[in-house]
Amino acid sequence: xxxxxxxxxxxxxxxxxxxxxxxxxxxxxxTNFKSEKNDVPVPLANGSTFPLFGPAQNSEADDYDxxxxxxxxxxxxxxxxLIHLLKGSLGSGILxxxxxxxxxxxxxxxxxxxxxxxxxTYCVHILVKSAHVLCRRTRVPSLGFAEVAEAAxxxxxxxxxxxxxxxxxxxxxxxxxxxxxxxxxxxxFIAKNVKQVLDFHSESDVDVRFYMAALLPLxxxxxLIRNLKYLAPFSMIANxxxxxxMGITFYYIFIDLPSISGRPNFVEVTKLPMFFGTxxxxxxxxxxxxxxxxxxxxxxxxxxxxxxxxxxxxxxISLYAAVGFFGFLKxxxxxxxxxxxxxxxxxVLAQVVKIMIAVAxxxxxxxxxxxxxxxxxxxxxxxxxxxxxxxxxxxxxAIIICTVAIAIAIPxxxxxxxxxxxxxxxxxxxxxxxxxxxxxxxxxPGMGRFNWRLWKNLxxxxxxxxxxxxxxxxxxxxILES
Length: 482
Prior knowledge:
Elements: E1 12-15, E2 29-32, E3 36-37, E4 40-41, H1 58-63, H2 78-89, H3 97-102, H4 106-138, H5 145-155, H6 164-202, H7 208-223, H8 228-253, H9 272-283, H10 289-294, H11 307-331, H12 348-378, H13 388-409, H14 413-440, H15 452-481
Antiparallel strand pairs: 1-2, 3-4
């Protein structure tokens, strides 16, 4: 996610935050390069954010090593990057994995979780590889996700050049929609967990929408914090609470596990799009990849074998598959959108877990909210004069109110999770990486024998489009029926 700030000859170091995660990477930064041509500043909105010149000759591109030109104050080691990758990928989506298995079946869900995880990981590989090649061609040290798309279109066939700004704008748009959608999902997670605990003690059945509305004042207070320094401590609190809550949840899951034969290995086909949307919501973390790679001391170690990416994603996919498998095995057709909602309502320890998870996700809301707010505000602030501060506060409050209103309007947590995954993450995690790879290598080295690169990327794009359309259709139907 690109947060464009100032124009200068030196790279800008910008803090980056994780999407979908209950944690925030306060250490992760990326280098965002600005350029000027004929002393005219690069446009802030959707203009080019890398040097504007044609493709370098092959010999010149080969001579330029972007990794040697990266100037990062605090580069991360391979272990640091692995930890950040795990933090960025292990988020609230893990709570919804048992529901994903409920929409696929025990055996089929297990196979498809690993398959989707492998496809998502491969898409990250080709995105990073494309970024490395484009950095050499454009002779800049690093590029963000949206910048990679813009560079690919400008370096591709001439008829695509005019679409470069549109490609960059679309990625930023889907990032904003995804992150704000996750904020809406968080409100549902918090409200449903708090409702279970309070309803049990008050012996009532209050509509979950009232709990969502009651969160608004607290979310407004947290959302008005503009300084990252004050938001960062909440990351550690969220990490501790989430880890502890998941540990206790596993304890409950493994008590008196039923036989595998009692659960279906496959459910009806009509539920599979819901599985796809929920699984990709949980597994996809492509938004944190470029900031992590851009900040590494040895970027060549990010992809490869075994590589930081392969190591981290192997752990993430295995953990998500285990939570989904054993969660569905334990609760079967009664699996809730958040696995914590299946824990015993009358036990104090289970109630503590629900409150811990709710608090962790509440803190994450303000951290998650920061990134889309930055993207939106950077494109708005030039239109206002001396009252920028008051306008920014007004925009912040308006967006927070909108997320609460959307959550209240769509209280179906499972359907909303699937919708966000199908709409945004299919686009960001599958369609755009395949498109970028296709354009970047269309001439050098070309499509390969039997046009294998073309067919491979067409498969990724079609897979993303089918998931987008079917997942969105089924999710919207699920929401409307509820």
